[in-house]
UniProtKB/TrEMBL annotation:
<keyword id="KW-0804">Transcription</keyword>
<dbReference type="Pfam" id="PF12833">
    <property type="entry name" value="HTH_18"/>
</dbReference>
<dbReference type="GO" id="GO:0043565">
    <property type="term" value="F:sequence-specific DNA binding"/>
</dbReference>
<dbReference type="GO" id="GO:0003700">
    <property type="term" value="F:DNA-binding transcription factor activity"/>
</dbReference>
<dbReference type="InterPro" id="IPR050204">
    <property type="entry name" value="AraC_XylS_family_regulators"/>
</dbReference>
<protein>
    <submittedName>
        <fullName>AraC-type DNA-binding protein</fullName>
    </submittedName>
</protein>
<dbReference type="InterPro" id="IPR018060">
    <property type="entry name" value="HTH_AraC"/>
</dbReference>
<keyword id="KW-0805">Transcription regulation</keyword>
<dbReference type="InterPro" id="IPR009057">
    <property type="entry name" value="Homeodomain-like_sf"/>
</dbReference>
<feature type="domain" description="HTH araC/xylS-type">
    <location>
        <begin position="187"/>
        <end position="275"/>
    </location>
</feature>
<keyword id="KW-0238">DNA-binding</keyword>
Length: 290
């Protein structure tokens, strides 16, 4: 018999981190047939500590299932415009965190823009030996509460050690806040005026910090809002009205929403929901601030 478990961390994990960790979810699946999961792009960095074997994935289904797949027990993922394909075995467990991209310098020791050359980066290479030791401890612990406490302590240690690093430019931080407040709506000209930079200069410094242009980040935020709206409907047993979701989330029309879904998931909204319905009903897939 198959089972899925998703447990969201309480406020204690992020205490003292000032919003650097947006969400943290413990997950466990057992007795499921081997399948291919789509890890979707989002406006947050992804940090995963696997509690079983390595996370196996790739940029295409063929790579994820073949000899060229990436295999790492600690995953760091930057901001991307395409799904990551994960080859899931019969059972898996881990803790997945959504990390604010402007916290990358403090928590990871490098800007988010440095993570975009690869879809997935080995967390041990980025975070060092201490992260591997923390993962071993997480594997030994038996409750999600203890695991979240361990991760919270570890992240606060990294934050304290990274406080003296190079700060994020004020214009980039304010631009991100403006985009998040508008949920991806608004124009580049309006954003550039708000932070008192030319559109070209803003795009340059924003991309250097995050790996994305402001327009790309805005599209991800809008998609995130739409995705979470759809997920909330399914979670309460209600079929989502995609035309209404499109209108509420700032898309031109239903077709515009479908095009973005196809870019970020590789399939239509209906096909993605069919794949993820069981995870959603078990409490998964709601990701980020909402």
């Amino acid at each position: 018999m198959s089972s899925h478990e998703f447990v969201r961390a309480g406020a204690g994990l992020g205490q003292g981190l000032g919003g650097m960790v947006v969400t943290a979810v413990g997950y466990r699946s057992e007795g499921i047939p081997p399948t291919l999961h789509r890890g979707l792009p989002s406006p947050y960095l992804t940090l995963i500590f696997s509690l079983e074997g390595p996370v196996v994935g790739g940029v295409t289904p063929e790579q994820a299932r073949g000899p060229g797949a990436s295999r790492t027990e600690i995953v760091v993922g930057g901001l991307h415009q395409q799904p990551a394909y994960i080859a899931q075995a019969g059972s898996e467990a881990g803790v997945q965190l959504a990390v604010h991209p402007l916290a990358a310098r403090t928590l990871l020791g490098l800007p988010a823009g440095a993570l975009t050359s690869e879809l997935v980066t080995s967390g041990s290479e980025v975070l060092g030996k201490r992260a591997a030791e923390v993962r071993e401890r997480l594997c030994e612990q038996r409750t999600w509460e203890d695991r979240f406490a361990t991760l919270g302590t570890y992240l606060r240690e990294r934050a304290a050690a990274g406080e003296d690093g190079a700060p994020v430019r004020n214009e980039v931080a304010e631009a991100w806040t403006w985009l998040a407040r508008h949920r991806g709506a608004g124009t580049l000209t309006g954003l550039a005026d708000h932070v008192a930079l030319s559109p070209r200069r803003l795009t340059s410094v924003f991309r250097a910090e995050t790996g994305l242009s402001p327009k790309q980040a805005a599209r991800l935020m809008r998609f995130q809002h739409a995705r979470n709206t759809v997920v909330r409907s399914v979670a309460v047993g209600r079929a989502p009205d995609l035309a209404r979701v499109a209108a509420e989330c700032g898309y031109f029309d239903h077709s515009h929403l479908v095009r973005d879904f196809r870019q970020y998931t590789g399939v239509s909204p209906t096909a993605w929901l069919a794949e993820e319905c069981r995870n959603i009903q078990a409490g998964g897939q709601l990701y980020g601030e909402e």
